[in-house]
Design brief:
single chain, 320 residues, 6-stranded mixed β-sheet
Length: 320
């Protein structure tokens, strides 16, 4: 379960359908839960808490990857309906500059001490027997806190007449993590598959486009063989005629390339939004660059395909 006091302040949660929950009896569910449980906007859902269960109204559907894609989103008041004794244990902070992250983490560590996760598997300190025992105890406590969800630990070790004791109060911070790094680790496998698919899709489309343009160019040369021969007799070179033929398809190429570039970006944004709830910003330079690359590729293919103009002989045409 994920709860916020005001979902409108979030940056990476976007409802697929419906709206964010606003009252304590409303929830937003994941797209996978909608599919597997056949629940939709306007339906009711029973959620069990620690000692009770409450009914909620579904106000929206969202694409989500966390919690095995079965997450439930509700307001903080809605969360307290089923778990009144829970207290927040996570603080989400958005930095103005991502480059300040390392300095910010160092500042937190200086104020509150090292996080439990960072201390969990570090080597025990050297020194006296008591220092080594305390270091080893800190390491064990850090593992229990960071890996097993333990909140408070006290220990006492007796060595002869000496008792060495301590607790986990020094571990104010359980873990410092970046949502960006977490999302990156989760998306790496998907990104690898997407890159491979995109690469072969581009190769396939490039081959298809080359074949189509080659057929069109060859057909145009064959159809206009006499006209091209006459132009050669007037002093035009084969290269100039090939450029003219290439420029004839330029307007259509520019229009189709612009449409293809815009549609490809829109389709990609829609796919990532529907599948993973990730909002990909539109980039005008990327669209322009993609369209320019498509136009250049089409012109090169057409120019090469028009190479049969070189085979047109004025002498043969006069003989015919």
């Amino acid at each position: 379960m994920i709860s916020y006091s005001d979902f409108s302040l979030t940056d990476n949660i976007h409802p697929k359908t419906g709206r964010f929950p606003e009252h304590d009896n409303e929830v937003m569910i994941s797209a996978k839960r909608e599919e597997t449980e056949n629940r939709h906007v306007g339906d009711s859902i029973i959620i069990k808490g620690d000692v009770c269960e409450k009914s909620y109204i579904i106000t929206g559907i969202v694409s989500a990857m966390n919690n095995d894609s079965m997450s439930v989103y509700m307001t903080e008041d809605g969360y307290r309906r089923i778990r009144p004794n829970d207290r927040p244990n996570t603080v989400e902070i958005t930095l103005k500059n991502e480059g300040d992250r390392s300095a910010f983490e160092n500042k937190l560590t200086a104020l509150y001490g090292a996080s439990a996760k960072d201390t969990a598997y570090e080597q025990s300190a050297q020194g006296s027997l008591e220092e080594r025992i305390r270091a080893k105890a800190d390491e064990k406590m850090a593992v229990l806190i960071s890996q097993y969800g333990v909140t408070d630990i006290d220990y006492a070790i007796r060595i002869g007449d000496t008792i060495i004791s301590g607790n986990s109060s020094r571990f104010v911070i359980k873990d410092i993590s970046s949502m960006k790094d977490l999302a990156k680790s989760q998306m790496e496998s998907i990104a690898a598959v997407t890159k491979t698919f995109s690469f072969w899709a581009v190769i396939f489309i490039a081959v298809v486009v080359a074949v189509i343009l080659g057929i069109i160019a060859a057909s145009a040369v064959k159809r206009q063989r006499k006209e091209l021969g006459i132009m050669k007799s007037m002093g035009y070179t084969s290269r100039e005629l090939m450029i003219q033929l290439t420029l004839r398809i330029l307007p259509v190429t520019i229009i189709s390339s612009c449409i293809a570039a815009v549609l490809s970006v829109r389709v990609q944004r829609a796919f990532w939004m529907a599948a993973f709830g990730v909002q990909i910003p539109e980039s005008l330079p990327l669209m322009i660059g993609t369209a320019a690359a498509l136009v250049l590729y089409c012109m090169i293919v057409t120019y090469v395909s028009a190479g049969s103009i070189r085979k047109i002989s004025v002498t043969e045409l006069m003989a015919e």
